[in-house]
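Cross-posted from the bioinformatics board.
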Amino acid sequence: MQNNLKFKMPDGHNEKQFIDKLADQYALKKEPAVVEKFTICDTFDWRLFNNSLVLYASANRLFLRKLAADEILHSAEITSLPAFIWDFPESELKRQVAPIIKMRALLRLVEVQSRSVCYRILNADQKTVARLAYAEFRRWRRKNKLPLVTHLWLKPVKGYPKYMRTLAKQLQEAGLEINKKEELYFKALEVVDKKPGDYSAKINIQLDPQMRSDQATKVILRFLLQIMRINAAQIEDDLDTEFLHDFRVAIRRTRSALGQIKYVFPAKTTARFKKDFAYMGKLSNELRDMDVYLLKEDTYKAMLPPILRDDIDPLFAHLRKKRSKALQKVIRGLKAKKYTKIMKDWEAFLNKPQRDSAGASNAKLPVIDLARNRIHKKYRNVVQVGSQIIENSEDEMLHVLRIHCKKLRYLMEFFSSLFPRKKMNTLIEQLKKLQDNLGDFNDLRVQRDYLLDIIEELPMAQRQSNKMIAAIGSLVGALDKEKQTVKDAFAKTFIDFASPANQALFRELFASTA
Amino acid sequence: MTTLALYSNKGGVGKTAAAVNLSYLAAQSGAKTLICDLDPQSSASYYFRIKPKLKAGAKGFIRGGQQIYKSVKGTDYENLDLLPADFSLRNLDIAFDKVKRSKKRLKKILKPFKTEYDFIFLDCPVTISILAENILNAVDYALVPMIPTTLSVRAYRQLLSFCHNKNYDTGKIYSFFSMVDRHKKMHREIIATVSKTYNRVLQSFIPYLAQVEKMGIYRSPVAVFSPESVASRSYQNLWDKVQNSLLSPQ
């Protein structure tokens, strides 16, 4: 089967002249023009774009295609544009997109209209043997503006390959180029000032190994400040949970940097901002907790025996109420003088040229030396604590190890541009597996304890519902059981992480050469 | 995937008109549809303005596989393809006789199409021989157009007893009334009797109409050149009945 061919019309072309010329050689039948509207969507952090996918809605369907490819991978019928993955109709499209966009909201990036006129090319029997579609794309409701893109499609009809070949040749001879590039997507986003891929919460900075450590640290911290600013501005709109999440991770990384990249700034300064960012983190603890429980609503329900599944609803209704109060508290906090002052002072500090000070003994050190030293030390901490747990596994120790791992991970991410990328990625991947195990364990423990306590909080009337108490009890039991499974998996996960091969690689990259 | 034959052991009952219009309606609903013109007279191919030509003729058809795949042509309508007829198909009976498992050969020939199409319609020639057995083995349902006349009903009775004798499942045979003239008392009476006597008679009537005959002039399905006509609505009604009675799960 032949494929559709897309041609780029030369600048300043005239549709009518072009078609008239074709009509000299072929019997053409013009069909009525069709105007369609497309809404291109993606998440705030461009998850689809980063996977080379384009998702758009047109009429009552959603379409998924690859970037720079025209064939549709999947489509599905919709009644309105879904905001979240759980609003999608059950379909192949949903299955492909779900692991990519996860809990992020879909945003309408731009609306485009296409006006296309199809010409059927007929043989002597007046049978259609190929189609030409002339399509102009404009921003929606900008009818009088020049088109963003104009395409001419040559579409085969099955069983008439000769016409297709001849026409393709003739169009090329007439100066039309076959166009395989993605134009529409980028041009449409350009007119609304959107740059695909311009936001990612991942640390993306380039450090010079010989840079002074204090300067390098400020580069890292300025990047994190950007992330905080971008996300803080969106939290109030409450589009999805991840603006807050990215905001909080940036705060946590900032705190970790202040604590772990030692002696680069004056002690007083470090102490002050450590305190400030601790305050900022605390501000949204409750809101994030509520987000986590509510995102898990379906998972929790699935853990319950079917007979109790609906009885847990009052709990989630309660959590939803709590969440909306917590959100208001965060919004107030972000508008408060204290927050504004912290951010202002922090920015001023980061942009101020660095002066040497007595307490900052590492300030002048080349950053590569400091990075090696810190990462290697933290790594040894992790191995030491982990080995102790293998001997004697107390829940409390697992928590301590989790914190060490987190600090190590952040350090590796801050400084990853200083080390060979492949090796660095391998180690981060290994560390991530260990962190997942420890993270799951901690989450399950915290959630179990939270649920045990929450009964006290519920209104009296509901506390008397035996079935709800039974449902919460059943959930606590299920979480406890899963916690044990995760704990049982710890030993193997840790031994893998601390394998001689990984130890050697850590030594190779980070043991000081001096 | 569903395979439907427009089949009758009596000629001139409106098989091709029904096959062309129903396949068009199926395709319009968004289903990938193939219509196979098995009739050497090639009327369905003519209606779609497609030359009656199969690569390697009836022999190639019997062989199946890639050759027959390459003979498929796109019609002027979205989602609707046609496997053209060929004059050599007049010898299809003899050709079937010569191959192994000769009564199930058509089923085998159509198999590769099943992944690509949601509906396959067979426009069949008049037959009650080995070709008829191939058709009955290959399809999920056979739709039999019946003119409300004595001879047409008699032919239908013959078909049912043929199926009984040969052990074919009569459950896949459905009939509907074709070329109906409601002004004729006999038509009305026969419709009433047949509907009472037989199971699986779809309560759908294609009237005897000039619009249907005009398909030969316009060379397209009725819904294309006369979408609001009685004929067009009758085929739509028949397609609805087929979907509701045969295709939708209880």
